[in-house]
Amino acid sequence: MEDRTGSAKAHRISVSERRVGTITGVVDVLSFDLTEILLETDQGMLMIKGSDLHVNRLTLEKGEVDVEGKIDSLTYSDSAGHGNGTSLLGRLFR
After folding, report:
1. 3-state secondary structure string across 4-63
2. CA contacts within 13 A on the Cβ side of 5
3. What phi and psi values does residue 62 have, to the nearest 5 degrees?
4. pLDDT given at position 5
5. What local confidence, expressed as pLDDT, does residue 75 receive?
6. What is the pLDDT of residues 31-89, one digit of tens each?
7. Which bin fits 63, alpha (ψ -120 to 50), beta or left (φ > 0)?
8. In 10 A of CB 10, how many CB atoms?
9. Which residues contact 39 (CB under 8 A, 6 or more apart)?
10. What pLDDT is attached to residue 84?
11. Are 54 and 67 in contact (CB under 8 A)?
12. CA torsion through residues 6, 7, 11, 15, sign
């Protein structure tokens, strides 16, 4: 998932007025729709919930994502939960 030699991009979140956000350190975008965006980051899974959410810019080579919409919450979940019998997606969407 991440290169521990220091070449991984720093994970950072910047949100302005709950409408525009920039996330770095993104490994993959697992899913997105108008109410939820699920990202795999260097620091674990990140779920962004809100309304009218859009992924405006996605650059996985640089590990950057820009989102827009009404952001209600940002929730992390450790990615180490794989393999315990319950999928991470199953636990996140209960």
Report:
1. CCCCCCCCEEEEECCCEEEEECEEEEEEECCCEEEEEECCEEEEEEEEEEEEEEEECCCC
2. 2
3. -95, -10
4. 42
5. 96
6. 999 999 999 999 999 999 999 999 999 998 999 999 999 999 999 998 644 444 455 55
7. left
8. 9
9. 23, 26, 27, 28, 29, 30, 45, 46, 47, 48, 65
10. 46
11. yes
12. positive
pTM for the full model? 0.75
Q: DSSP 3-state assignment of 94?
A: coil
AA identity, residue 74? L
Three-state DSSP class for residue 92: helix
Instruction: Enter the tokens of residue 89.
Output: 């997606």
Residue with tokens 């993959």: 28
Residue 41 in tokens: 């980051």
Tokens 């993104």 label which residue? 26
Cα atoms in the Cβ-side hemisphere of radius 13 Å centred on 49: 7
Q: How far is CA 85 from each of CA 27, 43, 58, 68, rounded to the nearest angstrom?
A: 23, 22, 31, 34
Stated as kind and residue range, the H or E segment containing 69 is: strand 64-77
